[in-house]
Design goal:
With 163 residues, the chain is of the alpha/beta class. Helices cover 18% and strands 27% of the residues.
Length: 163
């Protein structure tokens, strides 16, 4: 018997261990643009978009002043934040670049456009926007045919008009 998860299931939030809570909150609030919803003392904080209780949890419970895991170890590869459209993605990318964050990569996956970088604790971040489902590339049998083509960052940034 094959079990499938309900089609409306979504990833609700990510909770990250960080070394410095204030630094992490500043990054996710001031650079990424999420709103601080709540703090638990000096060890945890919860941020979101649109007033949701939290999309991002940050804590120093087991990681205060810690270091990122070295390459070659298991752990989170990246967390991906889906933006509603190209302009919203471009506005966030503009803030990321203005904050001096090094872009690790960018790709046109056919189904989406994505930009990759790390937060101050070395956690991988993907910011992306999906194309309309009817525009997703498919092979002759109708299966998704995702790719990894270069993304034109300059063209994306040109769409960063304010709301």
């Amino acid at each position: 018997m094959r079990h499938t998860t309900h089609s409306d299931t979504r990833i609700g939030h990510v909770h990250l261990r960080v070394a410095d809570l204030d630094r992490a909150v500043s990054f996710y609030r001031d650079v990424m643009g999420f709103e601080l919803q709540q703090t638990f003392g000096t060890q945890a904080a919860f941020l979101s978009a649109g007033g949701y209780h939290h999309h991002i949890g940050l804590n120093t419970w087991d990681s205060q002043q810690g270091t990122p895991p070295p390459p070659g170890h298991t752990g989170l590869y990246h967390v991906a934040f889906l933006y509603p459209d190209r302009a919203a993605l471009a506005r966030t990318l503009t803030r990321v670049i203005a904050a001096g964050v090094e872009i690790a990569g960018a790709a046109d996956h056919g189904v989406s456009e994505a930009v990759y970088f790390n937060d101050p604790d070395g956690n991988g971040i993907e910011i992306y926007r999906d194309r309309a489902r009817e525009d997703w590339p498919r092979d002759a049998r109708g299966h998704l045919k995702m790719g990894n083509a270069p993304l034109d960052i300059a063209a994306l940034l040109a769409e960063a008009a304010p709301v």
